[in-house]
Amino acid sequence: MNTNRNLQLLFDRPSEPVFTTKGNENVVFDVPAHYLTDRYQTFGQSLSNRYGENASEHIPVKSVQSVNLGEIEQLSRYDAFSIFVPKHRRLACALVDIFLGCTDTDNLISTSLYCKDRVNPAMYNYALSIAMLHRPDTRNVPVPTLIQTFPDRFINSAVFSQAREEAQLVSPELRSPIVIPRDFTASDLDEEHRVAYWREDIGNNLHHWHWHLVYPFESNTRAIVAKDRRGELFYYMHEQILARYNFERLANQLARVKQYNNFREPVKEGYFPKLQTILASRGWTPRQENMMIQDLDRPVDEIRMTVSDFEIYIRRIYDAIHSGMVMDRNGGTIVLDEIRGIDVLGDLIEASMLSVNPDYYGNVHNFGHLFLGYIHDPEGKYLERPGIMADPATDLRDPIFFRWHAFIDEMFQDYKATIPRYTRGLLNNPDIRLTDVVVNTEGGSPNVFDTFWMQSDLDLSRGLDFVERGGIFVRHTHLNHSPFTYNITVNNTGPAKMGTVRIYLSPKFDERGLPWQFREHRLMFIEMDKFFTQLQPGNNNIVRRSDESSVTIPYERTFRNLETGRDATDADSFNFCGCGHPQHLLVPRGTPSGMACQLFVMVSNYELDKVEQSLEGSCADAASYCGIKDKLYPDRRSMGYPFDRFPPDNVGTLEDFMTPNMIAKDVTIRFSDRTVLNPRNTTNVPPQT
Ligand code: CUO
């Protein structure tokens, strides 16, 4: 029996009843009669038989007793589910418990089928995803990517009526892909729109959603949250999102993001997402320009917080950072030291359930998302749903996300300013000298990255409820780059040893066109890759391909089986990770005339980097931003090393900072405004526009 596929089919067509056919192969789960909801108890069996007659396969389902869902059913199937809303989170945690408590995989499949039609579909998707990622029997089964079941969170709502028409009237082999315009959320009158291609990139949003699925901030099972260096990774992954966004901004003649730090002032930026929930046929509420956050009081969602209290929590966190210690629940103190301080702070600021004192330090980051997500209806007066800032699958689209996270990052940077600077001994690597690095792009000039647009097709049919079966493709446009290699020359004057190669990229100049001061420059480095290598005595030539990057996952992993529309098989689970920055966004866009950048490569001392553990059988595709499932973070240094700390006073520029085991090379990113079709597209019918 194909268990992996059956688990994945539990996610298909989220609001269709359990007895309808699932997957593109049209299989049905043979559910017992008592699984049907009251609505279908009287005539559901005949409907069920009808679907069964058309099915290509019947999947037997072990009958379980009715599950007592209690208050989980209180969230309507048509309400917006947000993990930032305390009540929703409590219900979701209870549902996760039910799924985690299932005795074996068959029992999990059966129990989730019983629950599917009774609980909010988005909450069901979240809880089942979390349970699958953390159960020993399912942790290696790829969780279907969210766009597969909830394409409405990623794609212009105008596409869906076209998709339904296509599905209803055209047979599958004649269906043509529906093109999603690249610019659908704003015009060029909005200067922030220049970087919408990056904020609204589907793969980018999927990465952010998946990261938060791997690192939930609350659970009744502590081990799900208490992962190695979790708080620090919250800081680092978001710091890198910000650095990458700032890189794109500079390439588009925009200044770096300004923090959102005055809550008594209006938010200058508006954002109109043009996303509509398929389930409730309601739009994600836009935010007009110059709106202001207000006290939240939404009893139904158990949300209550004044802006004044929010400011008090923030002040307490700053006090802790500047005094070098936080207060725990018992009035004791925990020193924010050089090694663990960032992790303590990450958990406290987010806040995850690992926060050492949530009553005193609050839940600042999460409440920022809620204040901004409910800016249009803070008291529920108009019965409005939250905006996109209240959902990790959608919030990256909004310019305010980055302003809010720039504020959060500033807290972490303030802490970093309090810890010791790296001495040259902590940067250097005895006997190792980096003599050259060259970037070679296929068919291009040395040290020039080449970027362009690509159009790729995705099959949305699994997320479109109550439509005819068969693939329904949309064609989205995304940034991409030509594959390249780094060719690094390292001289080793000592005996053979291991080294850690760390590769970063930054713009060469700031928004004024001036060279960087190191204390700002260090925040502009985006991690491109990190790997271990053996260094023989003498000269070593290291060649590393761009698709091997430790921060990305390949395009086909970001989008799983959405490209071909085929159903997953057991073989797909082999070495399969879903978390990671999308490979197609590894290189920032650059400029048509060529953006001047600096490539930085360092080979650090492996003896100070290494973490003793076996990685046998684990998938470590994008370990830098995602860690490794069920393992320690595979680098003992602080995340972001060597750029995570303030420099010593005598370091003014990158050149002052360099030790012999580092090299900086001038490189260029040249953007060519051409659009190429993804050769992996399977649809041959010309697109609709
Ligand atoms: Cu990822 Cu604020 O944490 O969105």
Q: How large, in whole angstroms, is the Cα Rg?
A: 25 Å
Bound molecules: CU2-O2 cluster
> Number of helix segments?
23
State the helicity in percent bands: 25-40%
Portion in strands: 15-25%
CATH architecture of the domain at 191-416: Orthogonal Bundle
SSE-based structural type: alpha+beta
The CATH class of the domain at 191-416 turns out to be: Mainly Alpha
Report the CATH topology name of the domain at 191-416.
Answer: di-copper center containing domain from catechol oxidase
Q: Report the biggest beta sheet as strand number plus sense, adding barrel if it closes.
A: 7 strands, mixed
Number of strands: 20
The gross shape turns out to be globular
Report the mean per-residue pLDDT as an integer. Answer: 91
- Placed side by side, the strands forming the largest sheet appear as 3-12-11-20-19-14-15
| CATH superfamily placement of the domain at 191-416 | Di-copper center containing domain from catechol oxidase
Q: Unreliable stretches, pLDDT < 50, 5 or more residues?
A: 567-576
Distance between the termini: 42 Å
